[in-house]
Design brief:
The chain is built from four helices and five strands. It has 148 residues and is of the alpha+beta class.
Amino acid sequence: MDVRPENSDSVEAEWEFQARAAADWDERSRNSATTWVPPILAALVDRARRSSLNRYFPFTSHAVLRFSTGPRHWLGEGAILPVAIALVPEGLYLVGTRADGWVLETASADEAVTAAERLVGDRYDGRRSDQAASESYDGGQPYNDVPG
């Protein structure tokens, strides 16, 4: 089992942790008949890590990659961005926001991350990310009809 980095305040360390955890998850997913989650998380994390989203802290929840402005958003140290990328049983990615719902379904991690980047840019349009995130996301269920 992978252990969180000691310096969890570092966005780079969190991306490294997520990359290792995604690779481990994909390996287990390939070798298991007990999960619906396709082994496509590592490709998504890798592509997001090489994008403008890499300035945010990544985390996964229920086969959804999400982003936060701080290392411990669950303690109020940062806000969750209202943009997420979900894995779909058919090996697809869904990209969406809380306000718009799911706006793109694609088989390409590149397309999914590019769409998420665009949504982040559209949502924040010059505002500080933490301010925009806290205004846009109240911590409740972010999307309707999350697959799985």
